[in-house]
Amino acid sequence: MDESSLQLISGIGAKLEQLTRPSKDVIVKSLRKVVSVLSQIEQPSVVEVATKALVVGKLEDVTKPLRKSIVKHGLSNHTDKDVRLLVAICVSEFFRILAPQPPFADKYLRDMFKLILSMFMELADTTSAFFSRRVKILETVAQCKCCVIMLDIDCSDLILEMFNIFFSVVREHHQQSLINDILSIMTHILNEEVSHQLTDVILRNLVQESKGATSAASQLAASVIQSCAEKLQPFVCGFLTSCSLDRDAVGSELKEFYHEIVLKLFQCAPEMLNAIIPNLTQELMTDQVDVRIKAVNLIGKLLLRPEYRLAQRYHALFVEFLKRLCDKSSEVRVTALQCAKACYLANPSGIESHELLTAIEDRLLDFDDKVRMQAVIVACELAGSNLKYISSKLISEVIERLRDKKISVRKKALQKVMEVYRDYCNKCAEGHITMCDHFEQIPCKVLMLCYDKDCKEFRSQNIELVVAEELFPVLLPVEERARHWIHLFSLFSPLHVKALSAILSQKRRLQTEMRNYLAIRKEKENSSEDMKKKLKSSFVKMSASFPDPSKAEECFDKLSQMKDNNIFTSLGLLLDEVTLKNALVIRDKFLKVIGDKHPHFEFLQLLSSKCSFNIFDSEHVCCILSLISTSGLGSNNLEAFSIELLLVIISNFPSLMRGSELQFRLLFEEKYLIHDKIIQVLAKVGSHISVNFSDFYPVLKKICLEGTRTQSKYAVSAIASLIDVPKQYVFTELCEELVDSLHSGQNIATVLQSLGCIAQYSVSTFEDLDQEITQHVYKNIFQAKSLDDLSVTEDSSGCTVTCKLKIYGLKMLVKSFLPHRGSQVNRQINPLLGILLKMLQKGDMFDNIFSCASDKAYIRLAAAKSVLQLSRRWDLHISPDIFRFTILMAKDSSSFVRRLFLDKTHKLLKEHVIPIRYACAFTLATSDSLKDLQHDSFKYMVEFIKEYSREARIRQTSMSQGGSIMDFPAYIVVFLIHLLVHDAGFPSEDCQDEAMYAQFCGPLLSFLNASMNSSVVDGDLDLVNNAALYLNYIFRAIKRAKDAVDAQRTPRLHFLADIGISAVNSLHRNGISSVCTLGTILLPSSLYKITPMESEEANLKFLTQSFVERVVHVFKSQVSLPVGSVHKRGRKCHEDGTLNMVLGKQVDFSTCGALETHKRSTRMETSSGRRRGHVVPPNALVSIGSHNKGFTEELEYGASNSSEAALEKRQPFSSSGSVTQKPSQMESQVSTQKFERSNALKGNIGAGKIINAEASNSRKVKFNIASKELPSANEVLIGQRIKVWSTFDSCFHSGTVDDFNPENNTHKITCDNGEVEILCLDSESWETISDCSLTEREVVPSDKANTLHLRQCGKDTLDKFRGDANQQSKTKLNMEDRKFRSRKVPLSEKRKKGQILSRDLSSVSEIINIDEDAVAKRTRRRKL
């Protein structure tokens, strides 16, 4: 110590002490000198106590004057900041140099500490010029530990204030030494004494960060707790325990931050919570939801510190935490999911990670949609964080949420799984992971959303955008995309392929229509009405590809009015650009030019996407071909799938193959023997690529001769696609070689397939060699005897080689009568039908040929399937016997025949390519002995009723002239009753056993039961009411008819009709509505004959009404629809049981008398045969008609004697006439007209004549038929339902013909999906859907007395007419004798190929009886 310094301090102190009121300047000047000197004085460090006491005593003496002057003048409370700062420095220095003795008396120390605390309060201002001096004061106070003195002088309030000051002034940017000094002071205090108040301050600041304060205070509090954990633990644990046991009893406001405090304490001093954490288990189980949520959040955060191994140390707590994922509160479950995710991400390899994943996976099936949505989010985020090791089961469960019952969950699942799949694709491209099935399942499931009819967001229009723009990362290379497509395609089911094809087909249709629209815009006269109609039609078609068609159509309309063609120029460029990379550049430039301010920016953004090849482009095709040819896929299995994918692509966009012809040709030569689909690819793209026919023909020819049957089928198709009209001789040469090969016996199966396919593509070629081919098949194949060793079979089918060849020969003949492209067959189908009938009856066509039971079963099955196929086009020629034996395949002795036949029938009915009467097979099989077959039959029947009922109603309401009752499933009872009447198992006449009758009538009653069950049609009571109405009228109509095949069976007919009426009344609880009535019920004239008869003649003596009711009761007590046969989901059931649909004019069916009519046969003097027509007008409750639907003459090789006799006379088995019975309160008589067709038919049918018949007491009726020119065959299609074959989609598109334009010979067709097509049906393959075989009319009373007016009942088509060109039809009416005769109807002598005969006879007789020659047929499948 320097003596001069000490004297200076003493002198300044004495001087200030002498002054009475020193000025500020004097004080500041004096204290600055003192501060400067005091900072140089070191604290005595003498070891000897005596020496140290002397030194301290000396310092006390030296500083005493100054200390006295500070107290005397109250400088500690001076108002000037400079003075106070200098005084505080002096005081802190006094504490330092005089320690351990306090520099002031106790009564003055409080003021001194308050002065120091005031300096601490300014520490937050780091920019102040005095900040360093204040830091020095803090440092000095910390070093000398003088704050402890406050405990001695009972200044607890100042200590509490100091703690609060420290927490309030500490900042993150403070230097660590400052924070250490603060911590040191606080630690010294707490080590001496801890209070509840100080604990509260510390804990409050510990959670300050969560309340928005600075984190420095929280960090300081944590540091204090860490430093004084032992001292604070009793107070902290006491507080936490009180909060845990009874929080309401705790007075501190900190109880609201109880969980935050626990978390903070766990982070800084976890050992303090050893006694607290177990108590959290009780909080997880409390009844208060908010407490459980906080507890879950807390434990979730505690688990984020894996180093503390909380789950292992407190396993019971962890188990209870997992249980909160199943909490009764959805809010708790959502919180638990979020916490579980955080826990897993913190330690994915931890022991508890598996349990967490399992618990999360379970929540994907939670009953609350919010929880499921959160589970999807959590699972996808977990998958994205660890794609390589994530559970495949978890991914599968997440994908399943795409089918969630809540749309919101589906949307979120779609968004999240797309993110996961894009991450997966990037990782695969980077080489971090390899392709795996469970991730490739994501796009598979996304495609399946196309089948979701309940949500418009997931229709194919939206899924197309998802697949095009969200499936892959934008920058993912095309080769990587191709690899992913091939891999995921290997996981496709037929439904996936169908969904992808539907999306591509939708995209293709829009692009095609957009090209047409752009071409229309370029035409000069775009203001005409015709042009406006074209534009409107184009807009409707294109709008069908958008999520909101009506809005899209409006946008199209507005865009078309724009004069700026830049938009359409850019769209044209997009349509022509077949590479994705360039298309993206064009699209981005296009959108940038129009700008997001454009009123239709969003629509144009969407339209430009749909116009681009952004799902598949030419580079995709090139990459796929390259991967196949270079074996870059590493698997033959993937090669096969890649070819199938290629087939799907080019089926919709064959132009994408352009530029890859050479690569494809090389691939074709290398792989065609391995992959049959390559040949099919060639068949698809043949007409769209530039290749030399000679490069492919040698290989295709070899395939037709030596390949497999499948290969030969596609090879013929490929040849047809590669050649043009001038090269048709190719088929002739090929056919001749095939015939030579057939005679030589080489590869007979393949040769037969090739010949059948050639017959479909080139009818003339096949017909040139028809006789030679057919005779060979009859003689060498059909008459071939089975091998001696019947165990010699082909493959594992159980069928001998000889049997196989017979089936192949039959298929070839059937194909020859089903040509493509609307070609006309000029051959007789009678021999083939005769063969089919014998095969159906005997399992072979010749009695002297011995075949094993298995072969016979296969032949019967092949014959039945052939009938089904022929019914597409030749249904008019299928006789009742053939139909009956075909349907009886459902009751065949062989179970596999029954199974395969029912499956085939179901498939064809589902495709709407065969008449509905074949659904009778399902009803017969509902009593099958095999439970699974019985169940499937019920399922097929239910699906048939549901689908066909809805479609029939749509046709009925959408067609301008209404639908036909024959479109509804109920109409099959007309054929089902015929089958039962002629069933050999019909109970004998003396049988009075109700149970036996109930069992026999099971097929009929089962069908009625399903038809009356509202759950079958998803609760649609309108359809049920319709079915009940139709069935009631049909049964009543049948009761007025006789069996046309065997009149002696008529009592059975009427008994079954009574059963039907009783069953309908019993099963339909709402009763039959009388609001809507039917005017005419048409019955097939080949099955039913309507003639006057006595009522007693139609009834069995003992079959009373009560017996009938007992039979129905027995059935109802034993039979019900099987569980699972009906879909549960569907639209809401209507409560109103009345019929809302107008089915026709309401007619009074009360009878006032009976009218008699007699039938008179008229003969066609043609070489092709004769037909009989008959008409009987009854006095019935309903109007009955007999029509030629489905059944016509039985031709050669018929089984029955009657049919053979008819054929010998060239006379048809049954009449093609339509017989209609009409009810009225007045006695009426109905006329019949027979239109006999000549071999050549062209143009419109001749005009009718006026026929008058005046009513009299002798029951003569005067008919007034106005003379009117009948419409053309093209015009009569208007209002009909047809199907048009799409070569791109390889399927039919259904629609309604709305209009015909004679100028360009085109029809306007509105498809069921909303699209509108303008087609020339002469160049399309199409077929009618309606089951009406002819144009049928009904007579209804008009307002004028004694005059009958006509209205159209239904329409159908006739495919082909043959006969003498000079032949004329004759139809005469003898009104005096009330018998129907023939009168002449002039027909054109010139044949028009593919002409459809269908008339709008709105003013002609409502009964039409058309005699057709032996080869005439009703066209269900019409190809032009």
From TrEMBL:
InterPro entries: ARM-like (IPR011989), ARM-type_fold (IPR016024), Pds5 (IPR039776). One of its GO terms (biological process) is DNA repair. Residues 1159-1185, 1202-1237 are annotated as: Disordered. Pfam families: PDS5. Residues 1212-1233 have a biased composition (Polar residues). It is found in: Nucleus. Keywords: Cell cycle, Cell division, DNA damage, DNA repair, Mitosis, Nucleus. Signal peptide: none annotated. CDD domains: PDS5, Tudor_Agenet_AtEML-like. One of its GO terms (cellular component) is nucleus. PANTHER family: ANDROGEN INDUCED INHIBITOR OF PROLIFERATION AS3 / PDS5-RELATED, SISTER CHROMATID COHESION PROTEIN PDS5 HOMOLOG B. This is Sister chromatid cohesion protein PDS5 homolog A isoform X2. The lineage of its organism: Eukaryota, Viridiplantae, Streptophyta, Embryophyta, Tracheophyta. The gene is LOC18592331.
